[in-house]
Amino acid sequence: MSGRKNPSATISPHEVLKKYKTIAVVGASKNPTKDANTVPQFMKDHGYKVIPVNPTADEIVGEKSYPSLMDLPADLASKVEIVDVFRPSEELPQVAQQVVDFYKKTGRPVVFWAQLGLENEEAKQVLAKNKIPYVMNACLRVVQRTL
User: Fold this and answer.
1) pLDDT score for 136
2) Structural domains in the chain (count)
């Protein structure tokens, strides 16, 4: 892939982080050495509300973790603005479909954000068809540092 640094997006990554403050992190990690732990912690430290989504954890970065997006309680689900994804690129279409289902359930528009190195054309098509803006191949921490 050419231009490893260039995100593919239907919405400005900078605008997303300026406008939205509540992030559900799909694939958040309990392991403090992984980006899927340090990035959510960084965002939390910078004033964002982080909601970890991981079926094998009860708590990540000091926040209650949920098995899936659909398991978020209604009051919490209604606040999600960004769904940040730390899953392999080949899993992005399934996660994109979960985001579509989440949007249909909550009626709340969200931004799909796939971390640096993660991109998938099928996921883009699923999101575009359902008018869900996305950012792929970009790190929340890197973008937040440039604000």
Assistant:
1) 97
2) 1
